[in-house]
Write a structure and sequence with these properties.
Elements: E1 2-7, H1 14-17, H2 20-27, E2 32-37, E3 50-52, E4 60-62, H3 64-75, E5 82-92, H4 95-101, E6 106-111, H5 119-124, E7 128-131, H6 141-152, H7 163-166, E8 185-186, E9 189-190, H8 200-218, H9 220-223
Parallel strand pairs: 1-2, 1-6, 5-6, 5-7
Antiparallel strand pairs: 3-4, 8-9
Length: 226
């Protein structure tokens, strides 16, 4: 198996991927894990990978271009079974999901940061979104490490006793709406016009409606106060 992890902070993954069971699996050649610095895929001389959100608001958004370039480079070398975005509002990670992914050959894990990635990445470039829980971390590096660990330990030969794996047992109550950043048009994929309107009330209305819809479809229990 091969796992490629895309991040703008690769050092956050050094320890989780170079110790314990994961390290032993890599040393045995049972899995290849490569970490790719998204700053190497930007044309910006300052190696910037984020920008301000269209429509205003606090926090920065990861840009689509470095992510797309990195994905294109990797896909030119091999075929990938999944491109997974580590997202707070993705499907909840379960043992069943880990079991499914352990049967794949090549996976890409994308780590978000700041306020997340430009929504067009989620719409056009990833095949799946996975969350490790309904809470917010500083970035997707730790979740990517969690998912990698959950998958790798299931691979044949990783654990000394293979039967061991078989016996292992948010602030306003809404999910955040989609976010976008420059450029406003990329390969025909465009930002919703309301976010470029400069009308704060319309922007807020759009965000609230989309936040409600996402919560209703992805985490309906939150609307029940659970």
């Amino acid at each position: 198996m091969r796992i490629d992890i895309l991040t703008c902070l690769p050092r956050l993954l050094e320890s989780p991927l170079n110790d314990s069971i994961v390290k032993r699996a890599r040393d045995k050649g049972l899995v290849t894990v490569e970490v790719h610095d998204l700053r190497d895929y930007t044309l910006d001389p300052h190696r910037t990978t984020d920008d301000y959100a269209f429509g205003g608001g606090a926090g920065m958004v990861m840009m689509i271009e470095p992510i797309h370039r990195c994905l294109q480079s990797l896909k030119a070398q091999r075929t990938y079974d999944e491109v997974i975005y580590m997202s707070p509002d993705g499907e909840q990670l379960t043992q069943s999901i880990a079991n499914q992914l352990s049967l794949r050959q090549n996976l890409i894990l994308l780590c978000g940061h700041y306020k997340g990635v430009d929504e067009r990445v989620r719409e056009h470039l990833v095949t799946r979104e996975i969350s490790i829980g309904d809470y917010v971390l500083s970035g997707g590096e730790l979740p990517a490490a969690v998912l990698s660990d959950a998958i790798i330990r299931l691979l044949p030969g990783v654990l000394s006793d293979e039967s061991s794996a078989l016996t292992d047992s948010f602030q306003d109550g809404l999910i955040a709406p989609p976010v976008y950043t420059r450029p406003a048009e990329y390969q025909g994929w465009t930002v919703p016009p309301v976010l470029l309107s400069g009308n704060p009330s319309k922007i807020e209305e759009w965000r609230h409606e989309n936040a409600l819809e996402r919560t209703r479809t992805r985490r309906p229990r939150l609307l029940d106060g659970e």
